[in-house]
Amino acid sequence: MARVVVDVMPKPEILDPQGKAVLGALPRLGFDLVTDVRQGKRFELQVDGEITDAVLAEIEKVAGTLLSNPVIEDFEVHVEEHSVAEVAHEAGRA
């Protein structure tokens, strides 16, 4: 089983109040290195079988019609070996 990830972010020209709120909170918590924050969404999709160009084209359609708002958001589709949760789980066992 393969995993395809869709990362959705606000377009650069779109205001990001959630990102600005996080940016404003960081110095109050003692984190001074970050200069900007943009908040987005991540979708992990399980796909049966091999990831082909046709499968990726289908995922692109899903991302453009359901997972994102193309007027205000951009998205990227990529294949990933392990989910964030699996990596965190493995790190906890080490």
Automatic annotation (TrEMBL):
<dbReference type="GO" id="GO:0005737">
    <property type="term" value="C:cytoplasm"/>
</dbReference>
<dbReference type="InterPro" id="IPR036604">
    <property type="entry name" value="PurS-like_sf"/>
</dbReference>
<dbReference type="GO" id="GO:0006189">
    <property type="term" value="P:'de novo' IMP biosynthetic process"/>
</dbReference>
<dbReference type="GO" id="GO:0005524">
    <property type="term" value="F:ATP binding"/>
</dbReference>
<dbReference type="InterPro" id="IPR003850">
    <property type="entry name" value="PurS"/>
</dbReference>
<keyword id="KW-0658">Purine biosynthesis</keyword>
<comment type="function">
    <text>Part of the phosphoribosylformylglycinamidine synthase complex involved in the purines biosynthetic pathway. Catalyzes the ATP-dependent conversion of formylglycinamide ribonucleotide (FGAR) and glutamine to yield formylglycinamidine ribonucleotide (FGAM) and glutamate. The FGAM synthase complex is composed of three subunits. PurQ produces an ammonia molecule by converting glutamine to glutamate. PurL transfers the ammonia molecule to FGAR to form FGAM in an ATP-dependent manner.</text>
</comment>
<keyword id="KW-0436">Ligase</keyword>
<protein>
    <recommendedName>
        <fullName>Phosphoribosylformylglycinamidine synthase subunit PurS</fullName>
        <ecNumber>6.3.5.3</ecNumber>
    </recommendedName>
</protein>
<comment type="subunit">
    <text>Part of the FGAM synthase complex composed of 1 PurL, 1 PurQ and 2 PurS subunits.</text>
</comment>
<keyword id="KW-0547">Nucleotide-binding</keyword>
<dbReference type="GO" id="GO:0004642">
    <property type="term" value="F:phosphoribosylformylglycinamidine synthase activity"/>
</dbReference>
<keyword id="KW-0963">Cytoplasm</keyword>
<dbReference type="Pfam" id="PF02700">
    <property type="entry name" value="PurS"/>
</dbReference>
<keyword id="KW-0067">ATP-binding</keyword>
<comment type="similarity">
    <text>Belongs to the PurS family.</text>
</comment>
<comment type="pathway">
    <text>Purine metabolism; IMP biosynthesis via de novo pathway; 5-amino-1-(5-phospho-D-ribosyl)imidazole from N(2)-formyl-N(1)-(5-phospho-D-ribosyl)glycinamide: step 1/2.</text>
</comment>
